[in-house]
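Subgroup meeting minutes
Present: P.N., E.W., G.H.
Scribe: E.W.

1. P.N. recapped why we're keeping a running log of single-chain structure predictions: easier to compare across weeks, and new members can see raw inputs and outputs side by side.
2. G.H. added today's entry (90 aa).
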Amino acid sequence: PGFGFGKTLQHNVTLLRELNKLTEWGVPVLAGLSRKSMLGTLTGRDVEQRLTASVAAALIAVQRGAKIVRVHDVRATVDALKIWNAVNLA
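Output recorded in log:
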């Protein structure tokens, strides 16, 4: 799915919330939310200050079935996903 790209904030939030519906088609879902303007709108942060929001959005996407996440801050995202995996997939 394309986050941003002519969607309203509500469209983007709904897309993230209901991302799991796309996994029902049986194909891997890629989510690219890193540093998106929707995160800036929700947090009031400039693009350079969206690390925490980007990691949170990636984690939510994975929780909702995304198999691939496109991120700018790989190390921080991987660390968060390692913790999530340890708790949820153990």
